[in-house]
């Protein structure tokens, strides 16, 4: 198994490639702002052939480069239907802040967009990615599991020592708590590859994440990640 990544753009959003091995087909996870150059470097270094892009959610810092990445390689993008509108209108994910942050920028869907469903198993690049709908950060937030490898791409659901924000349009704190509770049922050894910051494990976060200790009491989450 090959998993490599880098923080893209000013948001430092983790973009990943995942493949069975070097020299194989691969899947791109969350190509954020100005991710093309970093992706090209990883693809050349490991002799990979991208066959799809999968998005943990529709916020602009996770999908900024999805159009050019998919267009250059004629590959599909996968996203949950509740977040699909953000591909062409990312400002809807930020409300009053959108003009200040993204005024004048124009986005459009890739030519081939496919919709994710809860519990689906995507068979891509010789991999089996299990899709779990985990709303809270956005209505269409998902995670991707590689069960054979005990790996979770958590997007902006769960971070090392933190959880995702729920104060933006489409955020839902109670839904976030429910999504976190479901995610914490994964084995302790599951490696969590988040949308921002360093990797962690389910066991570590269950034991020490301050925002999970009072999960059943509805403790508020911090403003981490877009």
From TrEMBL:
<dbReference type="GO" id="GO:0016787">
    <property type="term" value="F:hydrolase activity"/>
</dbReference>
<dbReference type="InterPro" id="IPR036866">
    <property type="entry name" value="RibonucZ/Hydroxyglut_hydro"/>
</dbReference>
<keyword id="KW-0479">Metal-binding</keyword>
<feature type="domain" description="Metallo-beta-lactamase">
    <location>
        <begin position="12"/>
        <end position="196"/>
    </location>
</feature>
<dbReference type="InterPro" id="IPR001279">
    <property type="entry name" value="Metallo-B-lactamas"/>
</dbReference>
<dbReference type="GO" id="GO:0046872">
    <property type="term" value="F:metal ion binding"/>
</dbReference>
<dbReference type="InterPro" id="IPR051453">
    <property type="entry name" value="MBL_Glyoxalase_II"/>
</dbReference>
<dbReference type="Pfam" id="PF00753">
    <property type="entry name" value="Lactamase_B"/>
</dbReference>
<keyword id="KW-0862">Zinc</keyword>
<keyword id="KW-0378">Hydrolase</keyword>
<protein>
    <submittedName>
        <fullName>MBL fold metallo-hydrolase</fullName>
    </submittedName>
</protein>
């Amino acid at each position: 198994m090959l998993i490599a990544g880098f923080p893209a753009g000013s948001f430092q959003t983790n973009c990943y490639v995942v493949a069975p091995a070097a020299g194989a087909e691969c899947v791109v996870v969350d190509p954020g702002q100005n991710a093309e150059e970093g992706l090209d470097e990883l693809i050349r270094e490991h002799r990979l052939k991208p066959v799809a892009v999968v998005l943990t959610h529709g916020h602009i810092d996770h999908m900024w480069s999805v159009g050019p990445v998919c267009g250059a390689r004629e590959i599909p993008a996968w996203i949950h239907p509740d977040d699909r509108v953000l591909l062409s209108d990312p400002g809807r994910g930020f409300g009053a802040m959108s003009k200040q942050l993204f005024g004048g920028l124009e986005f459009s869907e890739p030519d081939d967009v496919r919709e994710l469903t809860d519990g689906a198993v995507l068979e891509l690049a010789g991999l089996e990615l299990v899709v779990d709908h985990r709303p809270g950060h956005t209505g269409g937030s998902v995670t991707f599991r590689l069960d054979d490898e005990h790996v979770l791409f958590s997007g902006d659901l769960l971070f090392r020592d933190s959880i995702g924000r729920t104060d933006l349009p489409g955020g839902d704190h109670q839904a976030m708590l429910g999504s976190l509770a479901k995610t914490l049922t994964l084995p302790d050894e599951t490696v969590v590859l988040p949308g921002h910051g360093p990797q962690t494990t389910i066991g570590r976060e269950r034991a020490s994440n301050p925002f999970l200790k009072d999960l059943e009491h509805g403790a508020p989450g911090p403003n981490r990640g877009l």
